[in-house]
Specification:
The protein has two helices and no strands. It is mostly helical and 151 residues long.
Length: 151
């Protein structure tokens, strides 16, 4: 009985490696996504803190320069939050793209695994057929020999 050898084993191994790399890539993108979410939370809390510390909140008199400086600071905080939000949205798109890569790599590997199982099953069936044919031939020869020996 000859052993089963899958002709596309190297391709299957490469697809397995590609799936593992895609899995690692997704993990990396998810980690970066968490960092971007934390950056957005920090930027949002800084903006909220800046809005609460407006100079006129205590009723004191402030100069126009103070108002301009406060307005510029608020705008910087808002633009910082908007940039963090854009970075998070971009990271979410990267995560989705990496997830799609992982799904496709997994699909390819599963296809090759199914093919390997089908071919292994076909090989086993062929080997069983050959063994049965051999046993039948041996059985016929023994039967023929017994007939000749009794005659």
């Amino acid at each position: 009985m000859r052993p089963f050898r899958f002709q596309l084993e190297s391709v299957r191994a490469l697809s397995e490696h590609a799936e593992a790399a895609a899995r690692l890539g997704l993990a990396s993108e998810l980690t970066a996504g968490l960092a971007r979410a934390e950056e957005l939370d920090a930027a949002s809390s800084m903006l909220e803190g800046a809005r609460q510390n407006v100079p006129l909140a205590d009723g004191s008199v402030v100069s126009a320069w103070d108002l301009l400086a406060t307005d510029a600071y608020l705008q910087r905080r808002e633009s910082s939050r908007n940039a963090a939000l854009e970075a998070l949205l971009l990271q979410e798109r990267r995560i989705e793209a990496q997830r799609n890569l992982l799904i496709e790599a997994s699909r390819r590997r599963q296809t090759l695994e199914k093919l390997k199982l089908r071919r292994k099953s076909a090989h086993r069936a062929e080997q069983e057929r050959l063994e049965l044919a051999y046993l039948n031939e041996v059985s016929l020869l023994l039967h023929d020999r017994r007939l000749r020996d009794t005659a």
